[in-house]
Known about the structure:
There is one protein chain. The chain is of the alpha/beta class. The mean pLDDT is 95. Strands 1-2-3-4-5-6-7-8 form an 8-stranded parallel barrel, surrounded by 6 helices. The protein contains 12 helices and 8 strands. It has 2 domains: 2-192, Alpha-Beta Barrel (TIM Barrel); 200-234, no CATH class. Residues 6, 26, 28, 107, 127, 129, 131-132, 164-165, 184 line the site of erythose-4-phosphate.
Amino acid sequence: MKFFVDTADVEEIRDLAATGLVDGITTNPSLIAKSGRDFFEVITEICGLVAGPVSAEVAATDHATMLAEGRVLAALAPNVCVKVPLTPDGLKTCKALTDDGHQVNVTLCFSAAQALLAAKAGATFISPFVGRLDDIGVDGLQLIADIVEIYDAYPNLSTEVLVASVRNAAHVVESAKLGAHVATLPPATLRAMYKHPLTDKGLEAFLADWAKTGQTILKPTSSGGANAESKRRSA
Ligand code: E4P
């Protein structure tokens, strides 16, 4: 499963990209507004930090303007993935942009029927919003299961399921079990995935026991200790 990070915060992206676990980035107009930065500048900067797809969303709602905006965004960097909303005009724009060879992420998907239309429009990614469905009492993960099942039944559909509106690690794990291709995670959710109390407790105990041995793995180099140690070991 690929991990995208759902943020327009460049410092967060820089930090998380250094883990080697980040395959792409998603932004939306709300995240751009939250960053307080110029849209073009921030997308260009993010594209330089991450090799994978960086979703940048159009602002228009009519096909002609969406297409023009999409082409401007796609020209910013080779890894820009133009994000369009799941509307008739959005899908028409998706078809035109993918026919031109651009990557397109169709966003604001809340039903399997919508996901089927997006795949037929040639979307690179479909973004079903799991958390926002859960928020209204609808099982968001069931939507992921339905879309994966439908797409799997038609191997000619190349659209990848990009699980969006992720609220917790369980959303990621369950989506992975269902075979979703990608999850886009808020930075805090990605960081939370590292954590388990037994990891912390176990590490604490191992460190305490290691300290009792009085040994070190790396020897100080300033006193020539490392050389002396490696000679002793190879003798
Ligand atoms: C990603 O592409 C979506 O815009 C994002 O996951 C939405 O998340 P939210 O429902 O937490 O705003």
